[in-house]
Design brief:
This protein is mainly alpha-helical. The chain folds into two domains: about 15-45; about 50-195, Nitrile Hydratase, Chain A (Alpha-Beta Complex), CATH 3.90.330. The chain has helices at about 15-30, 35-50, 50-65, 65-75, 75-80, 115-120, 125, 130-135, 140-145, 180-185, 190-195; strands at about 95, 100-105, 155-160, 165-170. Mean pLDDT is about 90; it is low at about 1-10. Bound molecules: fe (iii) ion. Fe (iii) ion (FE) binds near residues 110, 111 and 113.
Amino acid sequence: MPHDSHDHPHSLLPSDPALRVKALETLLTDKGLIDPAALDEIIDTYENKVGPQNGARVVARMWTDPAFRSAMLDDPMPKLIEMGLYGRQGEHMVIVENTEDTHNMVVCTLCSCYPWPLLGIPPGWYKSDAYRARAVREPRKVLAEFGVTLDEGVKVRVWDSTAEVRYLVVPRRPVGTEGMSEDELAGLVTRDSMIGCGLAREPGA
Ligand code: FE
């Protein structure tokens, strides 16, 4: 068999993750353990429907609608359910707002808890040991590595996510955005800014 020979340069077994997933999927389908149509739907949901654009819509509306903002800070769940932004890994959301004197930042020190319905799937760095340990130990240093330098007087508050509670950060609304529509404002809200590891984009930047 060629793949048993050590001098053969290529393995005939799937080497990259995509092939391995495919092999696993075929096996599980053959055994009747998964339904490929259901799997396709889940993949479509997280590829196309769920992502930071959802959180950005929430933030933009909080920036422009004071009644909505205070309702969201009080208890976001009724509004999130109404907006269809409710689901797995987002059952109990808490929304924290950056202000002139407080910057919020989110981590899951234990694993990788993240608000899926609002931000999609977490980025690799969010799940890394380094981020999880350093976000609580030296948040300002971590923020600086993300390009966020805060004034000395600004307090940094780090929120540790759990299986129950997930957080969304509302970044500060950039100056010079007074005339912008909600859609335009949503375009300024980055994923990282809603984790607290970034700031909203400046208009025209
Ligand atoms: Fe976790």
